[in-house]
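Query protein
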Amino acid sequence: MESTTMHLANKRCLTCLPQDMIELILVRLSVSNLLRCRGVCKLWDGIIRDPRFTMAHLRRNAKPRPLLIFHRAVNLGKLCPSEAVLFDEAWSPSTWDVPVIEPDDFLCASCNGLICLYSSKSTIKIANVATGECMHLAKPVKNSKGDRFSYYNFGFSPATNEYKVMHFSPDKQLHGSGFFSEIQVYTLGNERWRIVRTPQALSLNCVEHSGVVNVNGAMYWLTEDTESSWRRAVVSFDLKDEHIELIRLPVVDFENPAFGYPFRYRIMEIDEKVSVAAVQTRRDSYLTGKMQIWTLDNLVEQSWSQKYNIELLSLQVLGLYGDKIVMHSLSQHIYCHELASQSFTVEIAKLVKLLDFSPRRDDNMQSYVHVKSLVRLDAYKKAGIVCMPKRKEGWKLKKWEVWEHKLSRLEKQWRRTYEMQRRINVNAQVMGVALSLNLPAPPDQDTFLQRLNWVEQKRVEEMLSSCLTSLEGALKVIDKALTASKKMIMEADPVKVLQEIADDSATQMIVAADQVKVCVASNNHRLHKQRAGSCYFYHFTAPLSLSKEVI
């Protein structure tokens, strides 16, 4: 009765707060907490679902982090699915797969927590990573032969509060496959794609290799410009009026006796400004390089200033996120380094390792700037262009059965090993044997409805291997304890021993320990068989056979 009264009092306390005060409290919470808060009451649910609250929360809490996508590819003779890794505020990689990214999807763009996904199906998918909401749009081209995910992009216009999907359509007849002269544009909520023609033919190769960025309501990318020292120019596409403008890059002298001419360009956003990076390689060593980053200070005057001058050693840059630069090495590791000053050299001692992405390769890896948000898609789903894909998709396809079976087997192995550890610990306590076995408990069954990403799968495999080695050592300790107990029993008075066994349940303890040893040995041989051909090798002792006539 008392708990019911307190519950009603707390409920009245919540409802008596002014709505604006509730909003000020809720806007400070994370996206994951807000999703849980929607179930508190109708008032809170209405506040959190309000588009105005969504944008206010996005502006306040937008903390860009890397979203790494490893696209579907054949690796070491095996077909690997598309999988993503998200980094949180503490720069820790996610352990769960992103449900809205299916094994055959290719990521095109990320904007305000929404991502644009391409596949060989007849649709383009827009999805919210945090909420799991998604919708499919009919592609602007019926024949997808020659179409690529890098021809699509996605952006937001604050002036009109509109999201737009762009498709750079190759103009094969006039300029070859490396150029385009029209952009197909779709505004979320509209009924059809529209065509916007460019003032001149623009380089499609630059779009593919240098990327596209959405800054302050406009899309920016690079195109070829033979008159510039960069051999590049910036193209601006205003999402409000869909006007295209060419922006000249600053005059920079790249001639340097130590460094060769820039071989790689990238367009990015730094501090809400358009920035262009040029990477040069040392002439005496192709393993080290230098990256210059220039920022557009004034769009009208087209004035630029140099933001950073960084010596990179043997690392490849993935992007800049706040006060950090994220890079990857040839040894399949991802690192971050503080942006120490305007001009600095990346020091190995100051690198922070974020991720080991082996066995995946860097040639099918891409990095995007991503934030978590509550942006909803239900307002756009009524358009006639919104449809469902015609073919069966995702993990249901037969080609991913082996991958799914491997994950299921790993999850069962984790549960069996954890149960084994628990039983050994219980019996060791009964025997007075001190053991240190600390395999973490597997997630509950409901959580396993999600999928472990391949990074976490690899970690769990290594953890189970280490645990089985620990179990082997624990069994040796228990073996010695059982041998000593057997000797003491054989040397003692049989009548007295039988009485002690009846009191202490020693017989049950010995039999249970014997069963655990047999189970562990079986488990060891099973894991050894699964690991055949890999770089892990184990030696497991045979189980101890205990005689039932021990007394």
